[in-house]
Amino acid sequence: MKRAGILNRHLAGALAELGHGDGVLICDVGMPIPAGPRVVDLAFRAGVPSFAQVLDGLLDELVVEGATAAHEVMEANPEAARLLDDRLPGLVHVPHDGLKAISAGARLVVRTGEARPYANVLLRCGVFF
């Protein structure tokens, strides 16, 4: 058993398979999950694990070269908007329908227990060298 890092075997394995440019959608319980990508559902109950916990855990494990969130998050969920702006410099905002459309191309979807609106972000993987 691993001592540190991500312990969920499904998530750890999925992260190890990601390559440069692959998309990872971190989403709340209300985001429609597109058909096609691998899905790791971490939701245990409303709010557990939180969007912030999952985002921070994944940012510890991934190199991110870009991120996209819904424009609506700024008004509907200011706490999530601040979190995203703090953690992801250069974050791009698109309409929520646009985020859903581009999320269909994600390689991995990680579903959190977050139950507040628009707590979703699409990360684009970078490389560590």
Description:
With 129 residues, the protein is of the alpha/beta class. It contains five helices and six strands. The chain has helices at 9-16, 51-61, 73-76, 78-87, 96-103, and strands at residues 23-27, 38-41, 64-70, 92-94, 108-111, 121-125. A six-stranded mixed β-sheet has the order 2-5-1-6-3-4, sandwiched between helices. The protein is globular and about 40 Å long. The termini are far apart.
What's this entry about, in short?
With 129 residues, the chain is of the alpha/beta class.
Uncertain runs are: none
Number of DSSP E strands: 6
Give the integer mean of the pLDDT values.
Answer: 95
Q: Assess the beta-strand content as a share of residues.
A: 15-25%
Radius of gyration: 13 Å
**What helical percentage do the residues reach?**
25-40%
How would a crystallographer describe the biggest sheet? 6 strands, mixed
Q: How many angstroms separate the termini?
A: 28 Å
In spatial order, strands of the major sheet run: 2-5-1-6-3-4
List the total number of helices.
5
Determine the structural class based on helices, strands and strand pairing. alpha/beta
Shape: globular
Name the helix and strand elements from N-terminus to C-terminus, one letter apiece: HEEHEHHEHEE
